[in-house]
């Protein structure tokens, strides 16, 4: 039994005439970022409301969760009357706020408390006329952390699972230490089974993949069925009565093997990762410490109690999306990113909400393909480098890019959404950068 349409506030708008075209020649960055040599960047669309998650469909339309609006589509139009990208509304719904994925002809989108599915036709860029199907409901932690990330692991034409994240709004939410709280965890829900009436209930259904992840935001799969996770750690923490929060704890890059799901504990709210060891007496970057009175540092440092990250990110950088670069799958190779980067991962740093200003860019993580891990160890601060970053960090977050979603197209170009300047941009090599979406709401 589906939940009532009006109760959920869903309203589907069918694709018709494109509502807006923006010629590429007319677009410039609100604030031009610094870009690594050999890469160029170009705005492909701007003046969106609050773009977050992005996803290419199988017809190369870029679907965007424009928070406060719904799901929009950006479609390349090289006719004489456009020479740029055109925007159309796929689903109008102001409660959609981040997560998006497509599988087996279904478009999945998240609100703060639910996931819904629409029948989707990429040839007409439209959804079916019926009430959307409620896939998951009653998701825990519906405050500002309620921007759910969705992922359907590639499994052929019939996707087996939908993976969903839930976070918490608190720096230290002791309830999250209990798996039964539903907070700060990742769960997966079967898509190739009979859907319960009204959808799966987050608190009682699904399989818990991991918990103790304060705000797991970005998810992606590697070729060995490992789930890689970006985690936003706490902001205000102490250690041994000392405020260490200026440059700690590290944000994290975690991994779960979906071949061996144990529902492991990843530390929050009791255990954190050192980024700046100068704030401590005898720790190194990547080492675990306890920021509560519940456990000693030695408890947090035992992997049997707390699974440590595979790589440490700068504190407060707010890593969001993550994608592996697989190279060119289409026919045009002229604008692809460097072929030597194939296999590396890319992460969007949304940036700090307070001083010091850090993040506000997209980083590349060199990858050890033989070991299937980042090349760097968790105890380094140099395990990644910026592909692009805001030029003047002191103007952030109000007047600079704030990257959110990442997607590669078939030509090996990286598209990025930025929810602080209302632009969609692209990054590519030498002379063709395609990939930022920025939002006119500068305080997200």
3D structure, described in words:
With 444 residues, the protein is mainly beta. The chain has a single domain, classed as Neuraminidase (6 Propeller). 2% of the residues lie in helices and 39% in strands. The chain has 2 helices and 37 strands. The strands form 9 sheets. Strands 1, 2, 5, 6, 7 and 8 form a 6-stranded antiparallel beta sheet that branches. A hairpin with a 4-residue loop joins strand 11 and strand 12. The longest helix has 4 residues. The protein is globular and about 65 Å long. The N terminus and C terminus are likely disordered.
Describe how the helices and strands are arranged.
Blueprint: H1 5-8, E1 11-12, E2 20-23, E3 34-35, E4 39-48, E5 51-56, E6 62-66, E7 70-77, E8 84-92, E9 100-103, E10 106-110, E11 115-121, E12 126-127, E13 133-137, E14 150-151, E15 161-166, E16 185-190, E17 200-201, E18 207-211, E19 215-221, E20 226-232, E21 238-239, E22 242-243, E23 251-257, E24 264-265, E25 271-273, E26 288-290, H2 297-300, E27 311-313, E28 319-324, E29 345-349, E30 361-365, E31 367-368, E32 373-374, E33 385-389, E34 403-408, E35 414-418, E36 423-429, E37 436-439
Parallel strand pairs: 4-37, 13-17, 18-24, 35-37
Antiparallel strand pairs: 1-8, 2-8, 3-33, 4-36, 5-6, 6-7, 7-8, 9-10, 10-11, 11-12, 11-13, 14-15, 15-16, 16-18, 19-20, 20-23, 21-22, 23-27, 25-26, 28-29, 29-30, 30-33, 31-32, 34-35, 35-36, 36-37
The total beta strand count reads: 37
Poorly predicted regions are: 1-18, 430-444
- Please, what is the CATH homologous superfamily? TolB, C-terminal domain
Number of domains: 1
| CATH domain fold name | Neuraminidase
Share in helix: under 10%
Gyration radius, rounded: 21 Å
| Distance between the amino and carboxyl termini | 35 Å
* Portion in strands: 35-45%
Summed up, the helix count is 2
CATH class: Mainly Beta
